[in-house]
Design brief:
The protein has helices at 3-25, 33-59, 63-67, 75-89, 99-114, 116-125, 127-131, 139-160, 167-188, 204-229, 233-264, 276-288, 306-337. With 338 residues, it is mainly α. The longest helix is centred in the last third of the chain and has 32 residues, at 233-264. 18% of the residues are buried.
């Protein structure tokens, strides 16, 4: 499965399966807030880890892993490792049915890693660019491909995070995208060098692809958790003002009734002034008899967004259609550049 097909599969997998499952765990009332968040994050991490592991296994070892050396290995270290492994994998000593192919792959890895120019292209851009056998990689074209990738995901992120309840998720995702873009461009342009201790057997290109593969999990995790933790401060303020307004109306009405009772002396017969204590007790009785929601009883945490749910299906269909169009545009652009 190619990178484009893998990205498309990841998109549908997370949107159509993982996101609903995470929402089910975060549904209000199903678990406590702490347990719900713990279960949702654990599910996202487990799915991302298993899916990434399967993708790496399908991809197979890179040249450094085949040679059993690190990314910062010197020419002497590569020669020593090749000499040792060639004795093990040579067809005369290797009884495996794939001995010829294994030895040819090892020889190809050795040739690439010993050629400094080919090794740099392999580290920065991957084996696909190496197969093109061009003397100089057009960095401008590579940056255009990067821009198309992030523009496509930026549009998808915007469509997936429509609505006020997704404001936190939108900020988190776009912040993560900007950080990924900056790091990726700096790695492609060799503005930064990876430390030897950080995933020593992986190339810069593989680390970039790993970030691309993990981005759908990050996006959908931010959507679920951001919507779950969203606090509608405007709605809460309106609810508080409404509750206070209702209380004030009832207090004013009760005070008018008490004032009338005091002026009338409590009813027929000689006028008898009402004491302050009696007036306060009557006011408390009036208010206790009313079913008024106290402002502290208003729940500020979002436990549902009816309007957003009505629009979610339409947004999902538009987003899927837009992604498919962008996918074919991006795939066609990659094919033409190759």
């Amino acid at each position: 499965m190619g990178d484009s097909e893998s990205s498309l599969f990841s998109f549908f997998f997370y949107v159509l399966f993982v996101y609903p499952a995470t929402n089910w765990l975060l549904k209000p009332g199903r678990f406590s807030r702490t347990k719900g968040l713990t279960y949702a994050i654990s599910l996202l991490v487990a799915i991302a880890a298993v899916k990434t592991g399967l993708e790496l296994k399908e991809q197979g070892p890179n040249y450094y892993q085949l040679m059993k050396v690190g990314r910062s290995a010197t020419a002497l270290e590569i020669k020593r490792s090749y000499k040792k492994m060639s004795l093990e994998l040579h067809p005369d000593k290797n009884p495996s049915a794939t001995a010829l192919d294994d030895f040819a792959t090892l020889k190809n890895a050795y040739d690439v890693l010993m050629d400094m120019d080919a090794r740099e292209v392999y580290d920065r851009f991957g084996p696909e660019k190496l197969k093109q056998k061009v003397a100089v990689i057009d960095e401008y074209k590579v940056l255009v491909e990067v821009a198309i990738f992030y523009a496509a995901w930026g549009i998808m992120t915007w469509m997936l995070t429509l609505g006020k309840h997704n404001s936190n998720a939108r900020q988190w995702v776009f912040t993560g995208m900007i950080a990924m873009l900056v790091v990726e461009v700096m790695m492609l342009l060799k503005e930064i060098e990876l430390p030897p201790w950080f995933l020593p057997a992986m190339t810069a290109h593989e680390l970039i692809q790993l970030g691309h593969n993990l981005f759908p999990a990050f996006l959908n995790g931010c959507r679920c958790i951001g919507a779950y933790l969203f606090v509608d401060l405007d709605g809460h303020q309106r609810a508080l003002l409404g509750a206070l307004h209702e209380q004030n109306k009832e207090v004013l009405r009760a005070l008018r009734d008490i004032q009338t009772s005091i002026q009338n002396g409590g009813g027929a017969g000689p006028a008898r002034p009402m004491s302050v204590g009696d007036a306060m007790r009557n006011l408390e009785a009036e208010l206790d008899g009313k079913d008024i929601k106290h402002p502290s009883e208003v729940n500020i945490f979002s436990d549902g967004f009816p309007d957003a749910k009505k629009k979610s299906n339409t947004n999902l269909y538009l987003m899927i259609g837009g992604y498919i169009v962008l996918y074919y545009i991006f795939a066609g652009n990659q094919a033409s550049s190759a």
